[in-house]
Amino acid sequence: MNWKPTSLSAVKSGNISLGGELTVNRLGFGAMRITGEGIWGPPKDPAGAIAVLRRAIELGVNFIDTADSYGPNISEELIAKALAPYPKDLVIATKGGWNRPGPNQWTHDASPAHLRKAVEGSLKRLRLDRIDVYQLHAPDPAVPFDASLETLANMQSEKKIRLIGLSNVTMEHIERARKILPIVSVQNRYSFADREWDYVVDYCERNRIAFIPWFPLGAGTVAGRLLETIAKARQVKPTQVALAWLLKRSPIMLPIPGTSSIEHLEENVRAASLQLTDEEYLKLTGITELAS
């Protein structure tokens, strides 16, 4: 498939190295919302979801984040249907370690047996021989953390996984994991409006680990007088300012805003070209609680 070049491009967000092996543009795409309601089952408009994925590639997005639990399985299947055979520079990151008993329901299972089955399933659905970045979706309180990581390390040695990341973890988890194997990325909830994991972002920056903020726009609820004032002055949307803030927050930040709409996708990618001034950034960063 030939991808058309475009002036609206995620390339303008700059790039980031994953483990010194892969380089991607710093504005990626989160593929959770291309599934059905409750992140369950197929989307109402499968053709629309495929169109969004293809448009993301056209716009220079070369990092797509998904998980076997999105659908479950649906997100990975749609990515393969839309994009395989994949562009050479496309990096697909997926996750495992959760079960899905129903819509909006998630249960832990990061047991070695489950993770091995999850990796094999993702390889098949994504039509890959090796997964570029595989992330433990969350530590399982019923399974030793080291056992989960050792399983992924074994599958990495079997050439089924290239690089390994973590999701929904504390700094202690990261440090513990790094004693077992190299960690190239951390994915935690983080946004302009939600900075609980600030210290993890700082830790990742010090150690050159990519930080992938999930819920980077707080599901579109980002608000606040200063944010809106800057957006109005720049003639952009507050969500675009919020993404620009993330990109300026740290060079290791890799936002993955997701959507099922091409229009919304293009709005998000437009934020790659929005450069906040140091004054704007400092004013925004100084806010500890958003105004209502």
Task: Explain this structure.
With 292 residues, the chain is an alpha/beta fold. It has a single domain, classed as TIM Barrel (Alpha-Beta Barrel), CATH 3.20.20. It has helices at residues 46-58, 74-83, 112-126, 145-157, 171-178, 198-206, 225-234, 238-249, 262-270, 278-285; strands at residues 15-18, 22-25, 29-30, 63-65, 91-96, 98-99, 107-108, 131-136, 161-167, 185-189, 210-214. The strands form three sheets. The protein has a seven-stranded parallel β-sheet, with helices on one face. Strands 1-2 form a two-stranded antiparallel sheet. A two-stranded antiparallel sheet has the order 6-7. Helix 1 (46-58) crosses helix 2, helix 3 packs across helix 4 (145-157) and helix 7 (225-234) packs across helix 8. The N and C termini lie far apart (47 Å). The relative contact order is 0.14. The model is unreliable at 1-5 and 288-292 (pLDDT under 50).
CATH topology: TIM Barrel
CATH superfamily: NADP-dependent oxidoreductase domain
Strand content: 15-25%
> Please, how many domains?
1
Number of helices: 10
The N- to C-terminal Cα distance equals: 47 Å
What order do the strands of the largest sheet run in, or round the barrel if closed? 3-4-5-8-9-10-11
User: For the CA atoms, what is the radius of gyration?
Assistant: 18 Å
The tally of beta strands, per DSSP, is 11
**Silhouette:** globular
Q: Identify low-pLDDT runs.
A: 1-5, 288-292
DSSP helix fraction:
25-40%
CATH architecture level-2 label: Alpha-Beta Barrel
SSE order, as H and E? EEEHEHEEEHEHEHEHEHHHH
Largest sheet: 7 strands, parallel
Structural class: alpha/beta
Average pLDDT score: 93
Tell me the name of the CATH class: Alpha Beta
